[in-house]
Amino acid sequence: MGQRRSAIQREIRQTRPFATPEQEGVLGVLRTADVLRRHLSSLVEPHDITIQQFNVLRILRGAGASGLPTLDVADRMIEQAPGITRLMDRLEAKGLVRRVRCPRDRRQVLGYITPRGLSLLARLDAVVERGDSAALGGLKRGEALKLIRLLDAIRAGHARSQSSNSK
Amino acid sequence: MGQRRSAIQREIRQTRPFATPEQEGVLGVLRTADVLRRHLSSLVEPHDITIQQFNVLRILRGAGASGLPTLDVADRMIEQAPGITRLMDRLEAKGLVRRVRCPRDRRQVLGYITPRGLSLLARLDAVVERGDSAALGGLKRGEALKLIRLLDAIRAGHARSQSSNSK
DNA sequence: CACTTTTACTTGACCAGTCAATGATTGCTC
DNA sequence: GAGCAATCATTGACTGGTCAAGTAAAAGTG
């Protein structure tokens, strides 16, 4: 296996081939995620919101009228609690989210999406969906499904070895 | 197609199916990258280094004795210049990297990996390679290759639409 | 050779992720 | 029911990504 030269190797201008396909695969996932994140970012930023803020809004919309405690929001992201608190701070400052201390358990703080948040999401939904299609435009429908399956398998492997850990 | 329910949908406890496989694919890449990043992070952190710092070191090692200007390092990452400057600041503070203003073009600053940086990398190489194999352990060899191909295709699609942009 | 433009960084400011420590409740145990 | 542990959330400090603005040197132009 002398001179195989993948796209990544060209991108990073590295002459030596990857030690293993696994190594190349990991790097490929990381790089591709970066590309997709940028793309997504460029779609939501014009609306003065970040991807993470967008995610929180979608989660709260999903939670509906009953709201969701801060840490439950964190669970649905990859994130640790401290990040969520500050994310919510900013969303609240923008009037997209409302927080109320839960009367039944006063340790918790319930988050709710505001009507303004909902209308922002409504505008973004279509944009993002079109964006995602464009982002994977290089793939045929069947390839997209195959990709989903492979990625699921990777994450399943990790869930097994590390337990817990959602998003 | 009524009740298909993928791993991601279960993970985020979302009842509604994804609008499109493309949307699910994009989210899958992002989530998987997060998992892998954490994994990788846990491997390098014990050595008091972050993933980004590790990447810079590998790039500088690849550059060899002739060193590499700051912006060329940035090109090989996804990153903008400002981030690299500060990354190099920290690496220099740790004695893993050395910076010299280029005499031929005094606007440039050349970065070099130090012997100490090289020995750190030497220790990490094996760890990371083992880690990558474990990370993609859920995949058979052929599947890993297929994954690499699909990810390459996604990034190729973006390179076409947006030109420039390396990482 | 002065004048502008371009290139290569650097600095400042803000958002985000992570860890450690702290406060505020609630639940458990004796 | 007093005391202690566990849970929920927040704050502080640091790394990192990104944009906008600034500085310094080089390159191009008249």
Question: In short, what is this structure?
Answer:
Two copies of one chain form a homodimer. With 167 residues, chain A is mainly alpha-helical.
Describe this entry's structure for a reader:
The structure is a homodimer of 167-residue chains. Chain A has 167 residues and is mainly alpha-helical. The first copy, chain A, is 63% helix and 7% strand. A three-stranded antiparallel beta sheet of chain A has the order 1-3-2. In chain A, a hairpin with a 7-residue loop joins β2 and β3. In chain A, α2 (21-44) crosses α6 (115-135) and α4 (70-76) crosses α5. Chain A is globular, with a radius of gyration of 20 Å. The first copy, chain A, starts with 6 loop residues before the first helix and ends in a 5-residue tail after the last helix. Residues 163-167 of chain A have low confidence and may be disordered. At the A-B interface, α1, α2, α6 and α7 of A face α1, α2, α6 and α7 of B. The first copy, chain A, binds a DNA duplex (30 and 30 nucleotides) through residues 50, 52-53, 69-71, 78-87, 90, 105-109.
Q: Beta-strand percentage of chain A?
A: 5-15%
Pair with the most extensive interface?
A-B, 63 and 62 residues
- Counted beta strands of chain A: 3
The termini of chain A sit apart by: 38 Å
* Residues in helix, % of chain A: 55-70%
Which parts of chain A are unreliable, with pLDDT below 50 for 5 consecutive residues or more?
163-167
Any idea what the radius of gyration of chain A is?
Answer: 20 Å
